[in-house]
Design brief:
The complex is a heterodimer of chains A (411) and B (361).
Chain A lengths: L2 H31 L7 H39 L1 E4 L2 E4 L3 H7 L2 H32 L5 H9 L6 H11 L12 H6 L6 H35 L6 H30 L16 H27 L3 H9 L4 H12 L1 H16 L3 H6 L9 H11 L3 H30 L1
Helix pairs in contact in A: 1-2, 2-16, 3-16, 4-5, 4-10, 4-13, 5-10, 6-10, 8-9, 10-13, 11-12, 13-16, 15-16
Chain B lengths: L3 E10 L2 E11 L4 E5 L6 H9 L6 E6 L2 E2 L10 E4 L11 H11 L4 H14 L15 H13 L5 E5 L7 H17 L4 E5 L3 H7 L2 E6 L2 E6 L1 H6 L4 H6 L6 E9 L4 E5 L4 E4 L11 E6 L4 E3 L6 E10 L3 E6 L9 E5 L9 E6 L5 E4 L2 E2 L4
Parallel strand pairs in B: 3-8, 3-9, 6-7, 7-8
Antiparallel strand pairs in B: 1-2, 1-4, 4-5, 9-10, 11-12, 11-14, 12-13, 14-20, 15-19, 16-17, 16-19, 17-18, 20-21
Helix pairs in contact in B: 2-3, 2-4
Classes of the chains: A mainly alpha (411), B alpha+beta (361).
Chain lengths: 411, 361
């Protein structure tokens, strides 16, 4: 039979089956089991209405149980077993111990953590920026469509596009990779110094200054304000300030590095093989995709901010920056958190981009690709399942928080 | 201390002029109320004074300084919005101190100003609450408090009571009147479509209609001596009855033979050349007196509404679709489905020709 015909039949059977199930089961409930007549009509109606929600939930619960709950338990079980010949043997946490001893696992963990911080932060920030700016210009809707378009591209497709951006050819021929084409323009003259030394240094110093200011703002409340500050808040603020200080240190050392670095002008670069930095080249792909998502959600949220509060702020003397950061952003904070956590979950599961671009080589491994490696390439079900459990444990708290926030937003 | 001067102010959206020829001189300490039907541009005019809408023509100045291009924050104005426009993520205290923080005032100064405003408005127990934990009336007071702390020259109110329920509206209206008493030197501009608010609060009322000013005057001036038919019908409830007729006798007392057969005498003086002119007489429902003699109007009462101290009589509609309404003291429900003749004191009978009052020519 023609596969297309099979598909049509399957759809027909699926939809028809649903109809038959919902109609039939409700009919059975109302006509046979608890008919609303006779001496117990009132009691029967109440009972039927208590059962009815379960009739509707039943297919979903069964299917989700079969395809989600059971695999979780099975994976947990697999992660505690080791393959011996054709059978398996319970080994407790030996798989986890083996995984912990592998350098590649820790590399994945570390990379995942960097992804976790950079991608949601950048996507949300760019999304917010795009949302605010596109709302204020005439061709904003066109700009929005363009920024949103990457969302329609599969991760693998996006990876292929960006692989071409990072592509390198021999120095003698024209570069087809956009990044190398730009890179080859630099030859060490005044523009090179301006763009590759002065500009990064200025940006990094600005970043360091901004972070230092925020960190100071965090501790200042504790030190100066006459407001009573709780112990937990003190701790959080202290930690925040420490993270800020560390970021300042990183930014300053990078700025120093940018001044000192000996740049190989005129030599095409294999960007995806430069350790550490290649992670960021990979992240750019996901940021490119997720910015559209963040922009669409945040744009809707920004439009929901009451115009009155903005006008009141203008009369109160707030400048556009203050209106944006003190009036608009706090009012959409709930949405920002939901967007942030949603992207975070996507990031924790990131797999396709790494697989398609580097396959975890050159120190770009991430957990999901590590799991795939173990499960399907090495055929080690025990360690593969163990890493799957690690990913699930990492996603779980964020997922719970995300659902909590999303529900709060809906109220 | 602030005087507002609007000279030939106009507002155009592209080709469409929604406001034109607005000339207004608002003196220090006045409470000016803009009233008018919805869509007459009263809110737009207020927002132009606030600086939220661009003034597309004419000059607007405060204390002699031209304000057309001055940003809202530097005009020395504060505005209370219909929806209160409180910042939902800030406590009452933060809401009230926002403007002062932006202006980089010292924390002690801010605290003192907020505490003082909170005391005046009885908001002290709520200072640490978020707006969503307040009732409508309390939110409205916070919005007013946010204005007070800035100590502005001019207060602008954009229909501040329309989101409150009836009882609270009366209470808050009285609070605003008391606030005005307490600040005799501040100028206030108040927009409303509720004529009770206008009549009770205003030192002067500005009636806006059709993109221009219909009449400016004290509430009683507007009530007793409306300049035109629009103001006559807009002020007062139920609105003034208008009946067409022809001048038959001129002089200190003008006599008008009405098309419905009645005879009206008005204390509005006319000159001999007016004889035979088509005019409209206007009588407020409350100015009608029951009579058995010469009547302005005789008709069948269709419905009576006894309100206790007065009874409203709704007469059968006239040929032109106009329904005459009378208001008689006491409970007169027995008049339903009877024929009643009404007349009025000539001093209370208004006279209009071509829409304008003959008193003002």
């Amino acid at each position: 039979m023609n596969p297309a015909l099979q598909a049509v039949i399957t759809i027909g059977l699926g939809v028809g089956g649903c109809l038959v199930y919902f109609y039939g089961s409700n009919l059975f409930l109302d006509k046979v089991l608890y008919p609303p007549r006779g001496p117990n009509a009132g009691r029967n109606i109440n009972r039927a209405n208590m059962i009815r929600p379960w009739l509707f939930l039943f297919p979903a619960i069964v299917l989700l149980g079969l395809y989600l709950a059971y695999p979780v338990v099975a994976t947990l079980w697999l992660s505690l077993n080791k393959q011996v010949g054709t059978g398996s043997e319970f080994v407790g946490f030996a798989n986890y111990a083996q995984m912990m001893s592998e350098e590649k696992f820790w590399e994945s963990m570390q990379n995942n953590m960097v992804w976790l911080v950079v991608v949601p932060a950048m996507s949300t920030a760019f999304g917010l920026l795009a949302a605010q700016l596109t709302d204020r210009i005439k061709w904003g809707n066109i700009a929005k469509s363009l920024i949103f378009m990457p969302m329609a591209i599969s991760f693998v497709g996006a990876s292929v596009i960006w692989k071409l951006v990072y592509d390198s050819r021999d120095a003698a021929v024209a570069q087809i990779g956009a990044l190398n084409a730009v890179w080859m323009k630099f030859e060490g003259g005044i523009w090179s110094v301006l763009f590759l030394r002065v500009l990064p240094v200025v940006l990094l110093l600005a970043f360091a200054a901004a972070v230092a200011w925020v960190a100071w703002g965090m501790v200042r409340v504790v030190l100066q304000s006459d407001r009573a500050v709780g112990g937990l808040e003190k701790l959080a603020r202290g930690l925040g300030a420490l993270v800020g200080l560390w970021l300042v240190y990183v930014a300053l050392s990078w700025a120093f590095g940018a001044v000192r670095a000996d740049l190989p002008y005129g030599v095409p670069q294999q960007f995806l093989t430069i350790p550490y930095w290649n992670n960021f080249f990979l992240m750019a792909v996901l940021i490119w995709i997720q910015t559209g998502f963040a922009m669409v959600i945040l744009s809707a949220a920004l439009r929901g901010v009451p115009e009155d509060t903005i006008e009141a702020a203008i009369i109160d003397g707030a400048n556009p920056f203050q209106v944006f950061f003190k009036i608009k952003v706090p009012q959409i904070m709930g949405t920002i958190v939901v967007v942030w956590t949603t992207i975070t979950i996507t990031v924790l599961k990131v797999f396709d981009i790494v697989l398609a671009m580097t396959n975890g080589q050159f120190q770009t491994q991430v957990l999901a690709n590590y799991m795939y490696d173990k499960l399907f390439r090495a055929g080690d079900w025990g360690v593969g399942s163990a890493s799957a459990m690690v990913i699930m444990l990492l996603v779980m708290p964020i997922l719970v928080w995300n659902v909590y926030n999303a529900r709060k937003e809906m109220r | 201390m602030a005087e507002l001067l609007l000279k030939d102010v106009e507002k155009a959206y592209g080709e469409v002029k929604v406001l034109k020829d607005i000339n207004l001189d608002i003196k220090t300490g006045e409470l000016i109320v803009f009233v008018g039907p919805s869509g007459c541009g009263k809110s737009t005019l207020l927002r132009m004074i606030a600086g939220l809408e661009k003034i597309t023509g004419g000059d607007f100045s405060i204390d002699g300084v031209r304000m057309n291009d001055v940003p809202p924050a530097q005009r020395g104005i504060a505005m209370v919005f219909q929806s209160y426009a409180l910042y939902p993520h800030m406590t009452v205290r933060d809401n009230m101190s926002f403007a002062l923080k932006i202006a980089k005032k010292s924390p002690e100064e801010i605290r003192a100003a907020v505490d003082k405003a909170a005391r005046i408005l009885q908001l002290t127990p709520y200072l640490d609450r978020l707006p969503k934990a307040l009732s409508g009336g309390q939110r409205q007071r916070v919005a007013i408090g946010r204005s007070i702390v800035r100590d502005p020259k001019v207060y602008l109110f954009d229909e501040p009571l329309s989101n409150l329920d009836a009882a609270l509206r009366v209470a808050t209206r009285i609070e605003i009147a008391q606030l005005k008493e307490a600040m005799p030197n501040s100028t206030m501009v108040y927009v409303t479509h509720d004529q009770v608010e206008a009549m009770t609060l205003a030192s002067r009322i500005v009636v806006l209609a059709g993109g221009g000013i219909s009449q400016v005057g004290s509430p009683l001036e507007l009530y007793e001596r409306p300049e035109n038919e629009f103001v006559a019908q807009f002020i007062g409830s139920p609105s003034m009855n208008l009946m067409t007729g022809e001048v038959v006798e001129t002089g200190e007392i003008t006599t008008v033979r009405l098309d419905n057969g009645g005879l009206a005498r008005s204390a509005v003086p006319t000159i001999a050349s007016d004889t035979g002119q088509k005019v409209k007489i206007g009588v407020r429902p409350e100015d009608f007196i029951e009579t058995t003699g010469e009547a302005i109007f005789t008709g069948d009462v269709e419905i009576t509404e006894a309100l206790g101290e007065v009874t409203l009589l709704y007469f059968k509609k006239q040929g032109d679709g106009h329904q005459v309404v009378g208001k008689l003291p006491g409970i007169r429900s027995e008049l339903r489905r009877t024929t009643v003749s009404l007349t009025a004191d000539p001093k209370k009978v208004h006279l209009f020709a071509n829409g304008r009052s003959l008193l003002y020519r």
